[in-house]
Model the fold of this input.
Amino acid sequence: MTARTTSAKTLGARTLGEGARDIPEATVARLPVYLRALTSLAEAGTRTCSSEDLAAAAGVNSAKLRKDLSYLGSYGTRGVGYDVDYLRYQIAREIGVTQDWPVVIVGIGNLGHALANYSGFRSRGFRVVALLDADPERHDEVVAGVDVRPFDDLEQIVADQGVAIGVIATPALAAQDVADRMVACGITSILNFAPSVLSVPEGVDVRKVDLSIELQILAYHEQRKAQTA
Amino acid sequence: MTARTTSAKTLGARTLGEGARDIPEATVARLPVYLRALTSLAEAGTRTCSSEDLAAAAGVNSAKLRKDLSYLGSYGTRGVGYDVDYLRYQIAREIGVTQDWPVVIVGIGNLGHALANYSGFRSRGFRVVALLDADPERHDEVVAGVDVRPFDDLEQIVADQGVAIGVIATPALAAQDVADRMVACGITSILNFAPSVLSVPEGVDVRKVDLSIELQILAYHEQRKAQTA
DNA sequence: CTCGTTTTGTTCTCGCGTTCACAAACTCCT
DNA sequence: AGGAGTTTGTGAACGCGAGAACAAAACGAG
Ligand SMILES: NC(=O)c1ccc[n+]([C@@H]2O[C@H](COP(=O)([O-])OP(=O)(O)OC[C@H]3O[C@@H](n4cnc5c(N)ncnc54)[C@H](O)[C@@H]3O)[C@@H](O)[C@H]2O)c1
Ligand SMILES: NC(=O)c1ccc[n+]([C@@H]2O[C@H](COP(=O)([O-])OP(=O)(O)OC[C@H]3O[C@@H](n4cnc5c(N)ncnc54)[C@H](O)[C@@H]3O)[C@@H](O)[C@H]2O)c1
Done:
């Protein structure tokens, strides 16, 4: 789904030390879920939990959970379980959310406004450093404490703040252009909400969130249910 | 990822006729992408396309595309390719977007507003029939031509309009309650934007869209890139 | 110290999905 | 009509991920 060639990396990484573990993509996608479940448990005052407990909170199979965690190392204690805070820190460190990631959002329309106002960003290590839009009428509006600036400020902001992650919330037609500009000035991870296929050079990760695809998948199953009934 | 037990269905379906084809989940998830690519091609005036062309437009491998399409039937012509309009109709029919699906959205905050204003719904066979919110201050506001109504109107609306698909855009804490109410009054497909694990009975499909998980996956890969560099 | 209990970490097996490769089928040109 | 060139549809090989099952490790009781 991404432009990334994870397979080629298996041999390329350094064999020295232990910074070269290769975590399966399916596991990476579940680690944030575990992180959220652990945070819930911690807030509820739980100090320790078994793989069964955590799996239930995360909505997965406990065998799968243990296998996933085993890729990170042995952070549990047999016969006891996992220390909630300790495991939480280890997962957070592995994902990289112990540090702060500056993020720019491009396209401050309906969706861009909602994203800018979303509190789930900051609480998970992401900091919205800029809101950019091509339409001059949007400029100087302040959304969630950040003011909307011209799209042409992109290069300056990315360079100044060391931005690596960009979010695209423009119409589909503009998305490829925006992505090209982002890539050109050094952004290497893109989250795309526009319904368009982006082409980016190797080494740049793209993930897309496509609402209408999700609805169509639901519709397909709904139709099947109606047929058999 | 969903609560659906597709595996158990393989035998249960009727063997008579041809309405019982079992399309792999991975393929179902790509059909909407092909549909969109075909629409683009049609709008550009293309009447016919090869699997290479369509695969490029959809951002996938052409072998995968052909195999996906083969689950629907043989709608291409060897040596020629696919008729764009004909294939488009066949995929649309298979997914179920030739009919109109009424949808309710619950939780008309930042995200709910954006969703209600999203034009990509109607253009793909989804019709927003109601916007519901528990907060009385939101009521009677009109968003995109639909007025916001009390959450307690849910049962009435679902019954009157035959709604099968519900969208949850409330805070995480309310999501499970909303889902329970939806299920109780007959909704069998849920699209959940709240960052919480929903538990629903068998036969109900849940798909979740979780923005911060997507960002964390990007962050993970970003961190890896930084390490090896 | 030993035994039983609990729970992790890992091995093994199975099924699904991806990709390659090619025969079958169609068009067009001579 | 026949052969060359295209492009589909699918059989087969392969790799990854899910889940079951179990051995290894920790803990507590006696
Ligand atoms: N609204 C939703 O709920 C929703 C849901 C899913 C997907 N989407 C997609 O997200 C995208 C945005 O949706 P929206 O409803 O916010 O649209 P919108 O029209 O409200 O906002 C788009 C914004 O992008 C800006 N823009 C246009 N071209 C630009 C460019 N080249 N550079 C920078 N900014 C540019 C516009 O000025 C506008 O402010 C669309 O592609 C849409 O399909 C929206
Ligand atoms: N804003 C975003 O971009 C964004 C992105 C990803 C995920 N989310 C998630 O989507 C959800 C909504 O986000 P938001 O920013 O729109 O929040 P919000 O607070 O702006 O809106 C939530 C709305 O839900 C209503 N509500 C609360 N409890 C309800 C109930 N029991 N029944 C019906 N309605 C109820 C509230 O009155 C409010 O209008 C949250 O779970 C959030 O984590 C938001």
